[in-house]
Amino acid sequence: MNITSLGFEGFRNLCDGEITPCRGVNVIYGKNAQGKTNLVECIWLLSGNRSFRGARDSELVGFGRDAAKIKAEFFSEGRIQTSEISLIRGKKGAFLNGVKQRSSAALLGHLCAVVFSPEHLTLVKGGPDGRRSFIDGAICQIKPGFKDTLSSYKRTLIQRNSLLKDIPRHPGLEETLDAWDQRLAVLGANVIRVRMKYTERLCECASRYHMGISHNSERLNIDYAGTVPKEYCGDIGSVRDQLLKMLLDKRNDDIAAGSTSAGPHRDDLEITINGESVRRYGSQGQQRSCVLSMKIAEEELIRLSVSEEPLVLLDDVLSELDSRRQDFLLNEIGDRQVFITCCESASVERLKGGKLFEINGGKVNF
Ligand code: ATP
Ligand code: MG
């Protein structure tokens, strides 16, 4: 899929207008604070997502304006469609092909996109919860039913944890733990298997992109690092049995701590380059390249399952990458529609095809 025209009125600092991006790589360049990220955020909102900067709706309306309207015309499923959002005096409206939707979330899955912004570096630099939500979010995009499995697991976990906290005061409650353990093990095994399978596919795809970005010098590996040891993860039955055993073995510790120590809520992804942890040893450029490879791989896996390729939005990725890595991004991933922002005109000169947009004080020129 690709955006054929993008219009904005009263949105952040962008001057009212419209741009017509190309199908390949679109580079938006300009000095700091000119509106590059605002433009990327505008596309991301039209894909039905919430701001990747955590912005409230009221913050999106331009200073001194009382309404904002953004609209994308995009080609998908063999026809031109439209996605539109209006913000008028605190009220948000979302329209798909001119038809009003219940909420902007209803736009999800129509104009699809993956986004990278510097905040996403926490994927390698931050704690395991960020990696778990990345992988869960990515799976839900191609396997919507996984959301229900995850929610059931989380609900059961909360109930088991509250029971664990009550047991010291009411020891008779301990016998009811068996039933919760059984349920948690069944749901947990399901979550673990789905995540493991996805991680294998993600790793295969991301390591290919990483080879490209690093010009064959770096081998990226992503491994599912679970609380259930790998040798028990061959099939869902043995994951479930092992998880159940671990819940039983650790029961006394869990009661003392008032929380559950084994299960997918404690799992992580181990990301390495040439065998070394990217979080501990990776340079800034390696960490950035690694997250980028994972994001592009996420897009490719969506594309394989929904047969429409999502847009790739890359905000401020070129800084900290050397010229060969920048070349790869500018010239080798253009078989989907890409929007890249950057400050330096030197990077822009390396763009072989694609389209350039210069942004100055919110005014977009091309
Ligand atoms: P950088 O290269 O530093 O990342 P940028 O070009 O990405 O810069 P943006 O984050 O898009 O810059 O922001 C551009 C300007 O938009 C900022 O100076 C900010 O003050 C302004 N801005 C943000 N929200 C609004 C708003 N609601 N109304 C008007 N201006 C706004
Ligand atoms: Mg920016």
Descriptive key words:
2 domains, binds adenosine-5'-triphosphate, Glutathione S-transferase Yfyf (Class Pi), Chain A, domain 2, six-stranded antiparallel sheet, binds magnesium ion, 366 residues, 15 strands, six-stranded mixed sheet
Alpha-beta classification: alpha/beta
Q: Under the CATH scheme, which class of the largest domain?
A: Alpha Beta
Name given to the CATH architecture of the largest domain? 3-Layer(aba) Sandwich
Straight-line distance between termini: 22 Å
Walk me through this protein's architecture.
There is one protein chain. By secondary structure, the protein is of the alpha/beta class. The protein has 2 domains: 169 residues, Rossmann fold (3-Layer(aba) Sandwich); 157 residues, RecF/RecN/SMC, N-terminal domain (Glutathione S-transferase Yfyf (Class Pi), Chain A, domain 2). It contains 12 helices and 15 strands. It has a 6-stranded antiparallel sheet with strand order 2-1-4-5-6-7. Helix 5 crosses helix 6, helix 6 packs across helix 7 and helix 6 crosses helix 10. It is globular. The mean pLDDT is 93. The site of adenosine-5'-triphosphate (ATP) has 16 residues, from helix 1.
